[in-house]
């Protein structure tokens, strides 16, 4: 009975005119509140994704975004466009006009129009107030759920942070994404860009998925599902293509592509892990900010993630991981393993005094990609941080198959020499004009890209899977 009475009270005064459609939407916050929330969560985003340090490139992206925003349904908002230092291939938006694109995505775009397509799509989420509308629905459900919760003891509330977080990772759902496609295409046409650039961006992302499936097959693992920008679009999305073509009625002049201008702005863009994430060279890991290096098992495939360094054997029957945690209390490395990491049953343990670094190593039960396995845990202290090495074999019948390699890796841990500081510089994009002799096979042979260099160069230049450079055009290389 109380829930039935509560619903009309929630709905009363909770409607607002949609800036895009002019219809009434169910929302529980004003525009001022929306902007304040965007400002608040913007600070949280910048703690997780720091802005990429390239002022001119940041200004270029802001100029393109401003042009689109002026043609949008909420031109009264001051939009802020930020290039963030992440290898993720993604873009996302917060309420109130805060929009982000990763350098990981920027590297694979090939024209100003494609950049505008990404930004226009995200502007569409803001102008249509998608996060606000989802939050309002979730809040109403939570309020009604709280009535039930008071009787059954289960909470039904959902915070705005959860709504935004889900949208960043998985998008806003098929209908909202299609609405943003329509709006983004319209803003492109009104701003002098070809709406078909949106289709080209989807092609770029679909090729990324094809490449990921190829790598997963080679590495005998499941492909990592992509949940970011345009991820809801099927392979041949007729609805998407229809809304893109419909936007051409807003064309006011000839279309701008801006391929050369865009590529020239990418000169020197970091490709792959940045210096503060650490870089891998020939199975050696260097991190300038932390002043550390180590040797990884030869022949193993290495993946440098944002919070973890992972290596797997060629046959995918061995796994190694390195993570870092701060040391908050002055406890011995063994106590760190048992108390902080919660690994109690240590076997064959021994203290380590390694090049002046204190540590401890032992055999114990670990959580691994293969399930629970006996493996090697090693902790080394360096500069108020604990470096946590884990390693295990897949086969339970040979649990210590790679144990010596895990120990060797931990023992290779060291501070960097002057020469290693130079080796630790990240890879960068280099833009040059293609000549008649250029082939991706020969360009890949000279490239520092450690794996699948030929495929990566084709992906960077929108020529995957078998295209070749066209003489006289600007191409992206890695140095």
UniProtKB/TrEMBL annotation:
GO terms for molecular function: metal ion binding; metalloendopeptidase activity. CDD domains: M48C_bepA_like. Its cofactor is Zn(2+). Coiled coil: none annotated. Residues 56-244 form the Peptidase M48 domain. Residues 1-23 form the signal peptide. Transmembrane segments: none annotated. GO terms for cellular component: membrane. One of its GO terms (biological process) is proteolysis involved in protein catabolic process. It holds the Pfam family Peptidase_M48. Keywords: Hydrolase, Metal-binding, Metalloprotease, Protease, Signal, Zinc. PANTHER family: M48 FAMILY METALLOPEPTIDASE, METALLOENDOPEPTIDASE OMA1. This is M48 family metalloprotease. The lineage of its organism: Bacteria, Pseudomonadati, Pseudomonadota, Gammaproteobacteria, Candidatus Reidiella.
